[in-house]
Amino acid sequence: MGxxxxxxxxxxxxxxxxxxxxxxxxxxxxxxxxLPTEGPVPAATQVPFPDFGHRPPDDxxxxxxxxxxxxxxxxxxxxxxxxxxxxPFNENEDGKQNWLKYMLAVRDYCFEGNIEVDWVVEKNTxxxxxxxxxxQHWGPRGREGIRGLTQEATAKPGQLGDKQIDNFQSYAVGFxxxxxxxxxxxxxxxxxxPDYKNNKIQFLVGTIVFKLLFTTATTDQVPYLxxxxxxxxxxxxxxxxxxxxTRRSVQHVSLLQMDIMVRDDRAFKxxxxxxxxxTYCYNGKVGSKNLFENxxxxxxxxxxxxxxxxxxxxxxxxxTIINPKLKETIINPSADLPPQHLGWxxxxxGPLDYYASSCMSCHSTAQYPVERYQNPDxxxxxxxxxxxxxxxxxxxxxxxxxxxxxxxxTDFSLQTSLGIQNFFHWRDLQGGFSARKIELPIEVRRGVx
Length: 449
Description:
The protein is built from seven helices and eleven strands. It is α+β, with helices and mostly antiparallel strands. Strands 1, 2, 3, 4, 5, 6, 7, 8 and 9 form a nine-stranded antiparallel β-sheet that branches. The protein starts with a helix and ends in a 20-residue tail after the last helix.
């Protein structure tokens, strides 16, 4: 069967499902009314993206809605973003800790107008538009239907502190400002044909992305979570293993971590990466009246310090070990920060992240098709930590540069990479469409940003 004929059959099937009022995708929220069509793309390809993949059984609970009315024209950089981009994050002036000033300014920017509407970001009270990435609903770890959380890696005993003796599940939801939403919208202008080839995906300067991460951990094992920021979510059983156990129930999860990505051209001028990463750890003992402000900065990273090859890790932290050799990572020395395992050799990583990686290392693998794991330890083949192949994961890749030469970059955005993977996985399962079969490893399907 020819490629064009397969595509036409798939499109006819797509339209028939929509006309029948059934679920376009097997795990879609079928009750959602369609949004208005935007742009020159044929209306048939603009059926709304699925909101979530796992619907809670209680119909009285408000359901998560994907913010997906992406800008169709390039937005301007707003005044507050310009102020952030003027803070010299990698240097101090007159004794001021500018990296901390930068992190607090980004945190406030992300919070403003969203806390007031309980994170229903399309209702932002200061008219700042935020968007979600599509196609995170797919699979057993996909978006649940109350908060739009996707499942991430399991926190193992000792990872979150010396009192932790059990495994705990973790969940996250990410948000893109209007500049980031514009790029996402361009990738997905045709909802049946994501535009990812030839390394064209490059986010605009001023793009700000943030992610809130939650845990099922209890305060007796992770005391710094008290008093908690709690959300109700439709999540898996605490003892669920891998992707085979799909038991879910409505449970409380607690805020533990927040991650940020800022497309900052000063990082491009320093080493070509073009991105500044930051992460925060919740500490209720800080005692802020606004509990979200108990998110304490862990640090900033704008490069992988690719010349630092010493091998050291701290997987079960009793204290935070700061590596003075690193020049492209700054770690917060404050006593307000609970002990952190950080990343490989002390590079930046959050409490829920893998201790032998780093924020920038992990995100540098964002590409499609997926040719390599997010960290070499996730593969079956043993790769020695240190000089050699291991350092492929600690290069300073330029923004828009693919991790693998034969792949296509999604510009450090793992949610964009994952969304494209999920779409093609779904498309293959429909039969037709003439796409290659993709077997996604668990590490790729985790739903990370």
